[in-house]
Amino acid sequence: MRQLPADEASHQPPRDGVAPAHSYLDHGTTVWSWLTTKDHKRIGVMFLGSVLLMFFMGGVFALLLRLELLQPQPSFFDGLTYNRLFTLHGVTMVWLFLIPSIPTTFGNFCLPLMLGAKDLAFPRLNLASLYLYWFGALVTLFGMFQGGTDTGWTFYTPYSTTSSVEVLPVLVGIFILGFSTILTGVNFIVSTHLTRAKGLTWRRIPLFVWTIYGTSIIQVLATPVLAITLALVGLDAGFGIGLFDPQRGGDPVLYQHLFWFYSHPAVYIMILPGMGVVSELVCAFARKNISSYAAIVISTLGIAFVGFFTWGHHMFVAGQSVFDAGAFGVLSMLVAIFTAVKILTWTTTLYRGSIAITAPFVYVAGFIFLLFFGGMSGVALATTSIDIHWHDTYFVVAHFHFIMVGASLMAFFGALHYWFPKMFGRRYPEGLGIGAAVLIVFGFIATFLPQFLLGNAGMPRRYFTYPEQYQPLHVTSTAGASLLGFGFLIIALYLAWSLRWGKVSGANPWGSRGYEWLTPSPPPLHNFHEVPTFERDVHDYTVPEAGHGA
Amino acid sequence: MERELAPQFASVEQEARAWQFGMWVFLSTEVLFFGGLFIAYGVYRFAYPQDFHLASSHMNVWLGTANTLVLLTSSLFVALALHLVRHERSMWATLALVLALLLGVVFMVFKGLEYAEHAREGLLPGVYFASHKLHSVGALQFVTLYWLMTGLHALHVTIGLFVLAWTAFQAASGFYSPRRMAGLEIGGMYWHFVDVIWVFLYPLLYLV
Questions:
Q1: Architecture per CATH, B30-206
Q2: A464 to each of A59, A62, A69, A399, A467, how far by Cα in Å?
Q3: A112-156 pLDDT per residue, tens
Q4: Residue A290 included in any domain
Q5: What residues of B are in the A interface, CB distance below 8 Å?
Q6: Which pLDDT band, with edges at 50, 70 and 90, does A108 fall under?
Q7: For residue B40, which residues of chain A lie inside 8 Å, CB to CB?
């Protein structure tokens, strides 16, 4: 085990004496200067604040759900309120937190730094993405509270088009959020192609950039299908267009096909950037070159591609032909192969590495665990015969919370801790960080492991009452959720504290050889005093001191 | 008029390439956006082939054909405008863009006439459907899809008209030059895209 390079950074005095004085944080400190900025770093920070707020809200909704489920009989809420609450939880977490979480925050902040660029290709478009996100979030939440949508985050027809509650405003909100996602995707794709510094060839760009690139492709190609689908549902709910209405010859299952054509790739929008973060963190904290750059890149693009051909596994019991179900099942399993390639690449990278146990590293470990078990349960679910037993039970809930929520969260918080000094130039208390990370990992397992068992025992999802024999497992799950809530509270407190009183960080507190650390922390307005020449590969720990801390 | 080069780009050429590439990526989004409706069309046509055939015969083929010609010619003028700017003939380019714009307006007028005719015949989507001649659910779905697809297309045409107006204004004020015409190029790309979508809509809705 390696001690952190306690002050590797302090060996290298920041350029110009005091780097923070010239950082992007000091160029205008008024609210107006933030709201009108075109700086990708500031936009990333504003996105970070926004998605964290949404995460907090989604988390509170989750805790309320768990509270209700403590007892088999109705206790705090009636059925309708419960339905609204899980819809609110799902919509908030999926569209307001998970989809934008890593790309818009760390992607925004790090992409140009990692590409040696002064900004994204379209800075103004980037700011527009943020405003669209805010606007979409407001409309969505307003719609949720005003109309009280109770359809679940999936808006299945015909219920969503005949339900007496208002769904239109929420659909409009999500439609707007889609624009934000698409514009971000376009911006990242073009930036990756056309703003790279000299020497940064395609074979050299950091693995995090590759995943953001793969994610952007999904965002650009899948989101519009969701947009048109939700528009059709909205037109039906609001104006009786009836395209999915069986009474008018419409096909509700067509809705499910279109919806999942987006919403399945959407889980890769959530997890791919996380895989990128982990690829960075594994190298940085094992102080080793990635064992196979090509394996990570190919599996990233492989997941992005195959992800488009797996949507049918959500519809095994929706009247799909046996052949279709089998084909979708096999295609879904391909994702597991690509994921396994990644996990093996990370573990072989860690093998005999000089590992530093830090908070980000604990999250990496949590990520790999949750990804592995969540992924394996996914392979099981892709098997049609078993899926029929597990369909619409807590098993599915536990599966996707392990993989798309849990793993993404681990990566998000790993990234937050890893790049915190980069973004704000200060350190967080490491001991506290490690403690909270351990709490989060075990809290997560304690929350969702019982749900696998519940589902297998027959507990259906989205019910607010249940037979008494399920109570012990539900109580365990709620206990785990409380642990999670407590862990996040600790993190919120010490990170807020560190923003102001944390130890001032050097340019490169982790001794990482990711390209983003080649510039001071926090970076200056246009990222570099002098654009570095990218002479070594990213995370190359074989060359001594190459291009360190420019 | 010379605008400062954005700091993230090394040259004007690179910036222009970024705009063009960005537009291509955006158009791929648009294709998938329409794609949802095309898929729905395919599924329902497969389910109700006879009804689709019958309902399609209630469309005004002549107006549809005229509109196809109008839109294709309009696209031709946009292409001409690009050619003219490359040869530094801004005034002629402006004229070409204005003609393209006018043809776009003609398209919308024809489309409006068509919509009015459908409304008289009760060929309206969803709950508003009130045709005396067509009674099947398949025909109803065809009509709904017709309104959705042409409606979404008309929305894009409308946006395209603003884009053309803007490029015409820029061309008239002499903003474009052979070295600086990325704005015109991406505006043109958008208009061609709108045109291409119609090229698919026309046979699917009028000629089946």
A1: Up-down Bundle (1.20)
A2: 18, 13, 6, 20, 11
A3: 999 999 999 999 999 999 999 999 999 999 999 887 889 999 999
A4: yes
A5: 6-9, 14, 17-18, 21-22, 25-26, 28-30, 32-37, 39-40, 43-44, 47-48, 125-128, 136-138, 140-141, 144-145, 148, 152
A6: very high
A7: 232, 243, 254, 258
